[in-house]
Design brief:
Blueprint: H1 2-9, E1 17-20, H2 27-37, E2 43-46, H3 51-55, E3 65-67, E4 73-76, H4 81-91
């Protein structure tokens, strides 16, 4: 779902960046495997220590975080497709 959203909204300047919070031995390999299995073309960053997730108050994954063009976190936790699409529309000013 996120990959389709990324492709559809790229023309509006929206970019989907994924952050992998992984507690196994090789987070880089795990992230690459996940992206390959799900055919994800988005940028995938690593939060190997979980520090970024903790700063945002994220306690479970997956969690969506919407950040505006100024780098400000605007929403955390919209998880259903309807919630995510509504939050993106709001962020893009399409309400």
């Amino acid at each position: 779902m996120l990959e389709q959203l990324r492709l559809r909204t790229a023309r509006f300047g929206l970019d989907v960046i994924m952050i992998n919070v992984w507690e196994n031995t090789d987070p880089r390999e795990e992230a690459a495997n996940f992206a390959a299995v799900w055919d994800i073309g988005a940028t995938v960053l690593l939060d190997g220590t979980g520090e970024y997730a903790a700063r945002l108050g994220i306690t479970g994954v997956p969690t969506n975080v919407l950040v505006d063009e100024h780098g400000l976190v605007r929403a955390v936790g919209d998880t259903t497709p309807a919630e995510l699409h509504a939050a993106v529309r709001e962020l893009l000013g399409e309400d």
